[in-house]
From TrEMBL, chain A:
<protein>
    <submittedName>
        <fullName>Uncharacterized protein</fullName>
    </submittedName>
</protein>
<keyword id="KW-1133">Transmembrane helix</keyword>
<keyword id="KW-0812">Transmembrane</keyword>
<keyword id="KW-0472">Membrane</keyword>
<feature type="transmembrane region" description="Helical">
    <location>
        <begin position="33"/>
        <end position="51"/>
    </location>
</feature>
Automatic annotation (TrEMBL), chain B:
<feature type="transmembrane region" description="Helical">
    <location>
        <begin position="117"/>
        <end position="135"/>
    </location>
</feature>
<feature type="transmembrane region" description="Helical">
    <location>
        <begin position="334"/>
        <end position="356"/>
    </location>
</feature>
<keyword id="KW-0812">Transmembrane</keyword>
<comment type="similarity">
    <text>Belongs to the amino acid-polyamine-organocation (APC) superfamily. Spore germination protein (SGP) (TC 2.A.3.9) family.</text>
</comment>
<feature type="transmembrane region" description="Helical">
    <location>
        <begin position="41"/>
        <end position="62"/>
    </location>
</feature>
<keyword id="KW-0309">Germination</keyword>
<protein>
    <submittedName>
        <fullName>Endospore germination permease</fullName>
    </submittedName>
</protein>
<feature type="transmembrane region" description="Helical">
    <location>
        <begin position="187"/>
        <end position="207"/>
    </location>
</feature>
<keyword id="KW-0472">Membrane</keyword>
Length: 78, 374
């Protein structure tokens, strides 16, 4: 049900936007638009259905964990 | 030119002020108090010079690349490939910030005001307004920021004045009782939150009219906002105490709930919530705009308008994906978030400034040598 609604919304956005871009022959813009729309639709379905997927913030935690641990160690010594 | 709108310095300052207040007016006391307890007002005040320095770095960096946004400057400065990689890092930052702010609005409304409304519904309503604002361009957004600014400032001052009778100076004692490490952490939070997130400013500077007092005005705005936030931290510690401030994510909302003047002026917390949502809206919309503008500049698109609706869907999805529950990003991610803000807001601009500086120096030397040789 949710999937159908999201696909309908995506189709509506296409109907509004694609003619403008096609008239100007914006090929690159259209490609980016389609990629974004597909990604957005998939993410919206995941969000509505509340499926658990790994959070992108895990990347930030992964990058900064060593730095934080290092700083903690440095300040604890002093 | 992707963006045809032009904003003047006053509108830019209004936008800056709202971005800086943004979601901070609600969560800043809790975040900084969780690091440096009853001394967090000292940390917040001591962080102001460092924060102003980081904004000065951004303005200085803009001076080296006049007429270029952050993303264009990165590509011009670091070359096509390295520039694109650092740009993608910034775009990720903008996208995640936009989604996090959406999620914060949703979480605040569903935990405090409308507990039975599903989270995605609030996100949807919020994002429709954001899309509406963005599709009219930066000019309309800046003008509406100018319009809403007095309201926001007025109600923040209103909150400060009416909660003062309940303040107790004994709650901030012992002064300097937490030790230097805790205060240093508090200073890091101050640099990261109200100041570091102003990196979005770098995306707007090329579209402002070039006036002489621009840099001074931006620094002055940042100073005023940070003083306001420090006052808020101080008042919330004096009214609620360090322990209660630390464990309430929405400290200023609790403050507003406590206002009671002569059994007449009561329950004004919803006004504070409205003001908070207003300022958060501008912050979220600005980051959303930066993301779309940035991605169009990286990919050299001719317009960013077609990307607004698809990006709104991405933000809508990410707002839910970003964390399974409210405690994940308020209790786990926040320690790393401070580092991330400082990296994006201060460290990378400083690095870029050094690159410009040395490149100018070296190329200048080479020019001199060539001149003297001939």
């Amino acid at each position: 049900m949710v999937t159908i609604i999201v696909v309908l919304i995506a189709a509506a956005i296409c109907v509004f936007q694609l003619p403008i871009m096609m008239r100007n022959r914006w090929i690159k813009e259209t490609a980016v638009f389609v990629v974004f729309l597909v990604a957005g639709s998939i993410m919206s379905v995941i969000a509505w259905k509340m499926i658990t997927v790994p959070s992108p913030l895990k990347l930030i935690v992964y990058i900064y964990k060593p730095i934080n641990q290092f700083l903690e160690l440095m300040f604890r010594r002093s | 030119m992707l963006e045809k709108g032009r904003i003047n310095v006053r509108q830019l300052a209004a936008l800056c002020l709202l971005t800086q207040i943004g979601d901070m007016i609600l969560v800043y006391p809790a975040v900084i108090t969780s690091y440096s307890h009853q001394d967090s007002w000292i940390a917040s005040l001591m962080g102001i010079p460092f924060g102003l320095f980081s904004i000065w770095i951004m303005l200085r960096l803009y001076k080296m690349q006049p007429g270029k946004t952050l993303i264009e400057g990165l590509i011009a400065n670091l070359g096509k490939w390295l520039g694109a990689i650092v740009s993608l890092w910034y775009l990720f930052y903008f996208l995640i910030l936009a989604s996090t702010i959406t999620r914060e609005v949703g979480d605040f409304l569903t935990t405090q005001i409308m507990p039975k409304t599903p989270l995605p519904v609030i996100h949807l309503l919020y994002l429709i307004v954001v899309v509406w604002a963005i599709s009219h361009g930066i000019e309309s957004m800046a003008r509406s920021a100018e319009l809403f600014l007095p309201l926001v400032v007025l109600f923040v001052l209103f909150l400060f004045v009416f909660i003062l009778p309940q303040a107790d100076i004994n709650r901030i004692r012992p002064i300097f009782g937490t030790g230097p490490t805790a205060i240093l952490q508090g200073i890091a939070v101050t640099i990261a939150y109200p100041f570091g997130e102003l990196i979005a400013l770098m995306m707007l500077l090329p579209y402002t009219t070039d006036q002489r007092n621009r840099n001074k005005d931006i620094l002055l705005t940042a100073l005023i906002v940070s003083l306001m936030l420090s006052t808020l931290v101080m008042i919330s510690i004096m009214v609620l105490g360090p322990f209660f401030t630390r464990h309430n994510i929405y400290a200023s909302f609790i403050l507003a709930q406590r206002i009671s003047i002569g059994n007449f002026l009561e329950r004004i917390e919803v006004i504070v919530a409205t003001v908070w949502i207003l300022s958060t809206f501008f912050k979220g919309a600005l980051y959303f705009y930066c993301f779309i503008l940035g991605i169009s500049q990286v990919l050299r698109l001719r317009s960013y308008k077609p990307l607004i609706w698809p990006s709104a869907m991405i933000v809508f999805g990410l707002a839910m994906i970003i964390s399974p529950n409210i405690t994940y990003y308020f209790a786990t991610v926040i320690f790393y978030w401070v580092d991330w803000d400082i990296t994006c807001g201060t460290v990378i601009p400083l690095f870029l400034l050094l690159v410009y500086h040395f490149r100018n120096k070296w190329s200048g030397n080479r020019l001199q040598r060539a001149n003297s040789g001939s």
